[in-house]
Amino acid sequence: MEGMKGAVLITGASRGIGEATARLLHAKGYRVGLMARDEKRLQALAAELEGALPLPGDVREEGDWARAVAAMEEAFGELSALVNNAGVGVMKPVHELTLEEWRLVLDTNLTGAFLGIRHAVPALLRRGGGTIVNVGSLAGKNPFKGGAAYNASKFGLLGLAGAAMLDLREANIRVVNVLPGSVDTGFAGNTPGQAWKLKPEDVAQAVLFALEMPGHAMVSEIELRPTRPPSGPR
Ligand SMILES: NC(=O)c1ccc[n+]([C@@H]2O[C@H](COP(=O)([O-])OP(=O)(O)OC[C@H]3O[C@@H](n4cnc5c(N)ncnc54)[C@H](OP(=O)(O)O)[C@@H]3O)[C@@H](O)[C@H]2O)c1
C-alpha cells in the first residue's frame, strides 16, 4: 500500500468492476468505502482490504445514501470522491419489458447515480471539492437491440452527469464519466471467461487515472474499448 490518499465511496463494490476498483484504489493508498446490497461479500472484501469500510445499502434508497456518506465522514474524516458504479441490465425487446423491469434499471442506473451525487456533494463541499466518477457505458451513446431500458438509463446518465459537471465545476468538484465497452464480469447474466473483453481491472485503471489527475484538470470522459472484439464495434 502506498501513502494515504483520499477517501472514496465506491458503489457496486461487491463484485465486478466495483470490486476491482476498490482493490486497485486500496492498493494505491486510498481509503475505500464499499457500498452494495450483498453485505456478506462486502464484509469478506473489507476483511481483505485493511481499513476498508463496508457500507451495505441499496443505491435506490435515499436513507442508505445518507447513512453511507455519514459513515465515510465518521470513519475517514471526509469524503473526497464518489464512484457511481452500481448497475443492472435487463436486456429484452422494448415491448417485452415489464414496467417493473424498466423501473429496476432506471431506478438503479440513473436515479441511483442522481441520489449518489445529491448526497455526496455536501460532503465534498465540506472539504473544498472532490471528484465524482460515473461508470456509464458505450451503451450510453450507442443503442443496441434489446437495450431499451439499459440504453435509456446510460444515455440518461450522460445527461445527468453533463449538467452536474456544469453545476459543480466552479465549486471545485470534478465530474468524470468512464464509458466501457464489454467487460468480462457476470453483469446481466453474462458468464465471465471471455478473453477478448475488457477486464474489470482495466476499468479500475481508468477510474484511478481520472482521480489522479492534478486537481485543476478534469478528465470529463474516458471511452474504453476491447482492442480486438470478435466482430463489429463493441
Ligand atoms: N460488464 C460490462 O460489460 C459493462 C460494460 C459497460 C458498463 N458497465 C457498467 O459497469 C457497472 C458495473 O457492472 P459490472 O460489470 O461490474 O456488473 P456486476 O458484476 O453485475 O456488478 C454490479 C454491481 O452493482 C451492484 N448493484 C446492483 N444493484 C444495486 C443496488 N440497487 N444497490 C447497490 N448496489 C447495486 C451489485 O451489488 P449487489 O448485488 O451486492 O447490490 C454489484 O456489486 C454497471 O453500472 C454497468 O452498467 C458494465
Automatic annotation (TrEMBL):
Cellular component, GO annotation: membrane
| A molecular-function term among this protein's GO annotations | oxidoreductase activity
Q: What keywords were assigned to this record? A: Oxidoreductase
Q: Which SUPFAM superfamilies match?
A: NAD(P)-binding Rossmann-fold domains
Among Gene3D superfamilies, the record links this protein to: NAD(P)-binding Rossmann-like Domain
- Where along the sequence do coiled-coil regions lie? none
Instruction: Name the Pfam families on file.
Output: adh_short
Tell me which NCBIfam families the record gives: PRK07326.1 (NF005594)
Family stated for the protein in its record: Belongs to the short-chain dehydrogenases/reductases (SDR) family.
Q: Please identify the protein, giving its name as recorded.
A: Short-chain dehydrogenase
Source species of the chain: Thermus thermophilus
